[in-house]
Amino acid sequence: MEGQFKILFDQMKIEMEKQTNTLFEKMNEKLEPLIEDNKILKFKVQMLEKKIEYLEKEKKRNNILLFGLEEKENSSFHLLQRVQGIFKEDLKINLETSDVSKIYRIGLSKENKKRPILITFANSWKRSEILKQKKSLKDVYVTEDFPKEVLEKRRELKTKLLEERAKGNTAYIKYDQLVVIEGNQNKEKRKSDQLTSPEHQHQNQAKKKPGSNNTIIKDNRRNAFDLMRPRSNSSSSIPNQSK
């Protein structure tokens, strides 16, 4: 009796496995097109995200943010005049009215709060000129206008940036990437630059010249004495005619 139950159970098990496999095969047949469609949709979403990121970057390409300027202006034109005065005094850059497309403060106005100023330039070269000399600004500072995703990435990289600088390496963040130059490479580069610099070569030439001149002088003196010896011998061999 037990043997019959076992045979029956094994047959049921085999039949269930067959039905399960058949069911999975049918499900896979139906799911394969869906999986493929899902892959295509994911690819399209990624492309759209890249396109949006590019458009966002292009939109902010000619922008800078200025921080630290007290809110004393009564109009956008007055604000522009104040910014023009700062750039002229600190950076020695003449910012014309035609160089600026837009200028306004960001965020809601609050008491005792200096809202940042967004400046959109009509051309990128004026923006680049200001960013190159931004360290000369005294009471305010400027930064690039980064997209939100880039700002988050830069914040994440700051910890790594400080770690690399603590190791003695040169490190800085370029857009959303951390650039690290090892300290030994800097030393070797500076040493190579010094050796190949015109000033260093001039110093080497100056050091060599005194030695070479002394050698020539010594040789000339030695040769002069050598020339005098035969003359002295010949003069002693000439009889004294006065006698």
From TrEMBL:
<keyword id="KW-0175">Coiled coil</keyword>
<feature type="region of interest" description="Disordered">
    <location>
        <begin position="186"/>
        <end position="243"/>
    </location>
</feature>
<feature type="coiled-coil region">
    <location>
        <begin position="38"/>
        <end position="65"/>
    </location>
</feature>
<protein>
    <recommendedName>
        <fullName>Endonuclease-reverse transcriptase</fullName>
    </recommendedName>
</protein>
<feature type="compositionally biased region" description="Low complexity">
    <location>
        <begin position="230"/>
        <end position="243"/>
    </location>
</feature>
